[in-house]
Specification:
heterodimer, A: 241 residues, alpha/beta, 2 domains, six-stranded mixed β-sheet, four-stranded antiparallel β-sheet, 9 helices, 10 strands, globular, B: 468 residues, 0% strand
């Protein structure tokens, strides 16, 4: 099967601190891949490197066939991204922000698309509100929309469910599952293990910047294991080491 | 409650030191001290052409302007910090989580700004001057008095801007009325005494002849301005949702002739809706320049013919270059990091918006030329001012990328900036003094500006945009 994303010996150092240490992994097209790890394990740094937001100290990576070091802007042009903490610009309204994204990404027929998303994520009543005045949940809806509005072949999303209420989490999980069924790929970073087990086809576990395991979820279930318990035993063992 | 004050001071220090290292920031007052110390040795030379009183006047004008600018930034602090550090906020805005009133926090905030910037700017300068006094023939008492009056000048700027911005936040018509009353008052004073009203600036009066009465009057005026600002202080409204009809698409169409219409439209909305366009134009541009124009007008006899206009034009150019910070201060690269936008594209777009804003200094210089009866030199003065502004912004973009208001406190950056801008200012001011029409030659600054911007784009594309 074709590869959507491939990282080879990716390393990122911030001074003396090694955030990501020699990580290699590949993600097939049409899969929903979960990057799992406790807080501070290097998940966000990994996503930042894969989307050209930060340069690796060493190693290489290609996303949809584009080299992330040589052409970071080209990568960002092809994929959809939800950064972990970033909020939309303060002084644009929700609708204006989507128009801004559409203009930068050159997305045609934006009015129809944004109307669909406002209805789908149930925030049409907020479309004329300044982004700085939106609640965290609504900002997350907006960031989710900007990542998927151009229907990218690959979306890299960092903790996408964290500010959603349970109803919206359910809507989003269904959307993600349906999205990969259309042959597109999602790379999701999360520490909500139950969600990962429910929706991911493949996963990798990162701890203190080191890749502890990577493989399909089906392999675990075939062994009668659950992702949360597997994750906890692996990370705890690594802590003692 | 002393803890609140000490933590605010710590917070201010960390805001600066975490940006570019404690050492670089700690060296900043050392550099100010060095400039004052070395500058003091030039006093005996300058005295031959410029009376000491006029030198004092220039320094007081600078510290008044510094106070105005510090006050202006402090009031914008929370928004700037939120954009720069994501979830970060200032203690000054923490009344919602602490059992302390907004007004008390604001009082601490004002005292913190006063103490902090006194140690950062005022004391190092005064100390350099005091240390040089035995060698420059300035009596120690005079040096100590200068330290006191510079402190007062700085405080007048700081509390003046707090006072005016507190009124601005309550009612814009009242602000215009207050400015009008001030203007009429100064005009009346000039008409009654036949003197430039700047000479009645309390710290200057005190510097020329110290009396306890004058000192107490200065303190009383400051206390009054602080007091009114605190009483009028309007805490940030909580829970309000501002709505706007869609202005982005029409604005983008209007800017279709620019290189990056969506980015230009976004910058325009940022400036307009944040209140920066009007607020910054008043507090960071017109107010300091009006103050400088008034002060410089006293030095007219010491300049060559028409020199004052070109000095004002050059100063306007330097201050106008800081408009680049207006368009960069509400943005980190963060919101663009999920889009196919390079740092160089963003720098280009910010510079385009900056170029549009240059209409403001051009109009200001034209007004000065017309009011001072030098309409014949309007074009050379505008060319000089705007060329200096573009050149200074080229230096700023090359040195600081998208973070000019942060990196300016890095002593290395500030040093290089001062050298590069200082050389250009010296050359083109001298040229304009020689013949006003020679000021047109400042267009040649377009070449280094173009090179600097090109280098800036290459340089900052190669730097990890995750920074600031």
């Amino acid at each position: 099967m074709a590869v959507a994303l491939e990282a080879k010996n990716l390393t990122k150092k911030y001074g003396e601190v090694i955030a990501v240490d020699n990580v290699s992994l590949s993600v097939e097209r049409g899969s929903l891949f979960g990057l799992l790890g406790p807080n501070g394990s290097g998940k966000t740094t990994m996503i930042k490197m894969l989307t050209g937001q930060t340069r690796p100290t060493s190693g290489s990576a290609s996303v949809l066939g584009v080299d992330v070091i040589k052409d970071p802007v080209g990568v960002r042009g092809q994929v959809g991204i939800i950064p972990e903490q970033e909020t939309p610009p303060s002084f644009l309204t929700a609708m204006e922000y989507l128009e801004f994204v559409a203009a930068v990404r050159k997305i045609p027929d934006i009015e129809t698309k944004e109307d669909w998303w406002f209805d789908f994520l149930d925030f049409a009543d907020k479309k004329n509100v300044l982004c700085k005045d939106l609640s965290r949940g609504t900002r997350q809806k907006l960031m989710f929309t900007q990542a998927f509005i151009h229907e990218p072949a690959l979306a890299l999303i960092d903790e996408p469910l964290i500010n959603f209420d349970p109803i919206m989490q359910d809507v989003v999980k269904d959307y993600l599952a349906g999205y990969v069924k259309k042959g597109r790929t999602i790379f999701i970073s999360t520490h909500i293990l139950e969600v990962a087990e429910e929706i991911c086809s493949g996963f990798a576990i990162l701890h203190k910047g080191i890749l502890l395991h990577t493989g399909p979820v089906a392999e675990l279930t075939a062994r009668g294991e659950h992702l949360p318990s597997f994750f906890l035993s692996l990370v705890r063992k690594d802590r003692h080491v | 409650m002393f803890e609140l004050f000490t933590n605010m001071v710590k917070e201010e220090w960390r805001v600066h030191s975490t940006m570019f290292g404690s050492l670089s920031f700690a060296l900043f007052p050392v550099m100010i001290f060095g400039i004052a110390l070395m500058g003091s040795f030039l006093i005996p030379l300058m005295r031959t052409t410029l009376p000491a009183g006029n030198l004092t006047l220039i320094i007081h004008a600078n510290y008044l302007m510094l106070g105005i600018m510090v006050g202006g930034f402090g009031l914008l602090g929370n928004e700037v910090m939120n954009r720069r550090f994501g979830q970060a906020s200032l203690l000054a805005f923490s009344a919602r989580s602490l059992p302390i009133s907004e007004k008390f926090i604001f009082l601490n905030f004002v005292i913190k700004d006063t103490v902090y910037y006194f140690f950062l700017w005022v004391l190092p300068f005064g100390f350099g001057y005091i240390l040089a006094s035995p060698f420059t023939g300035v009596p120690l008492a005079g040096a100590l008095l200068l330290l006191l009056t510079l402190t007062l000048s700085f405080l007048f700027g700081l509390c003046g801007v707090f006072f005016l911005s507190a009124i601005y936040a309550r009612s814009r018509p009242v602000l215009w009325l207050v400015l009008l009353v001030l203007g009429v008052g100064m005009g009346g004073l000039a008409a009654m005494t036949g003197k430039n009203p700047v000479l009645f600036f309390p710290p200057l009066l005190l510097n020329s002849a110290f009396t306890w009465v004058n000192f107490l009057i200065s303190c009383a005026v400051l206390a009054l301005l602080f007091g009114i600002a605190i009483v009028l202080f309007n805490p940030e409204s909580v829970g309000s949702e501002k709505t706007y009809r869609d202005s982005f698409a029409p604005l983008m169409q209007r800017f279709s002739f620019l290189p990056n219409p969506p980015l230009a439209a976004k910058d325009t909305l940022d400036l307009y809706r944040s209140g920066s366009l009007i607020g910054q134009t008043i507090f960071s541009f017109l107010l300091p320049l009006a103050v400088i124009w008034f002060f410089l007008s006293l030095l007219g006899p010491f300049f060559p013919p028409h020199g004052l206009l070109f000095i004002v034009a050059v100063t306007t150019g330097v201050i106008a270059s800081t408009m680049y910070t207006w368009v960069t201060m509400f943005d980190t690269f963060g919101p663009y990091a999920c889009l196919p936008v390079a740092v160089s594209t963003l720098i280009e777009s910010k510079l385009t918006t900056f170029a549009v804003l240059q209409a403001i200094p051009a109009i200001f210089i034209a007004v000065v030329a017309l009011f001072s009866g030098e309409a014949a030199y309007l074009v050379p003065a505008i060319v000089l001012g705007i060329s200096v502004s573009f050149y200074a912004v080229g230096v700023m973009a090359w040195l600081c990328g998208l973070s000019p208001n942060v990196l300016v406190y890095d002593v290395k950056v500030l040093f290089v900036y001062l050298i590069l801008v200082g050389i250009a200012l010296t050359i083109f001011t001298s040229v304009a003094f020689a013949n006003p029409y020679f000021a047109l030659s400042a267009v040649i600054l377009a070449i280094p500006t173009w090179l600097l911007v090109r280098k800036a784009k290459v340089r900052w594309d190669a730097v990890d945009p995750g920074g600031f």
